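*** Backbone structure tokens ***
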Amino acid sequence: MAAVRDVSVSVPTIGRAESLRSLLESLSRCDPRADEIVIVDQSGGEAVRQVVEEFADMGARRVPSDLRSVGSARNAGLRAARHETILITDDDCTVAPSWVEEGWTLAARHPGYLLSGRVLPGGDPKAIPSVKVDSEPEDFTGTRRCTVLYSNNMVGPRASLLAIGGFDERLPTASDNDLCYRWLRAGGPLRYEPSLAVWHHELRDREALEARYIEYWRGQGMFYGKHLRAGDPAVLRFLMTDLHLAARAMAAAVVRGRPRWTDSRRGVLRGLPAGMLRGLAFRRGEGLAAAASPDPVA
């Protein structure tokens, strides 16, 4: 019988049954395995149920959800998990055979930390929205950052994540950036560890990828607008950096003739301003994240 670690794996999915099967197959090759795998299913169909049942003998179980946002799915996974140490990935990823063991080991070595790791390209890197390949570990504790937590490859303490309000369910994308920022702002410890590795696979065609980038920047704009609405001007420096990089990307595209789908920053001007307006309209105290205690990870 395969060895098992007392950790929970949480995966949101919205109908990508075959991609989910590939992920679960990779989790089945982990040695040791996780004690449970919580699949939060927002698809409303039977395909995901059937795939999860195929892996029931390794602790996979389905948690149905009528909502349609990745933030709400991640929060549902946090609430449903049985173990304090939780590993989170996505249904368009596969994990390294050492992923569960590395997650368990790192959580024991760094108690109370949020941990994130390498997100390697499973295909053309230019066609994959989220990649992180740095080979050196880095500790971000005590800094103010918003882009150093990759929610398709993260490990964290379940109770502390729930105490800080989890993922803001109002944000269609960038809820991991928002969580990263709130966690570090509250004094929470966060590390990048390259030994924790997943592969992010190419699933979208070029048109869908371009639309995804616009959607991503709309969510990022909502993140900025939300915190500006709450009276936190610190996010302005992130906003200015994004606008600067977007301008450079557009200039490079004109000079080199690169198509829009090859650079996510090409979606900034088409998505971020509209998102900011939506975020600025948020009411104070509204949403799950706003219900967190003022110092939840101290």
Observations:
- The CA atoms of residues 93 and 200 lie 5 Å apart.
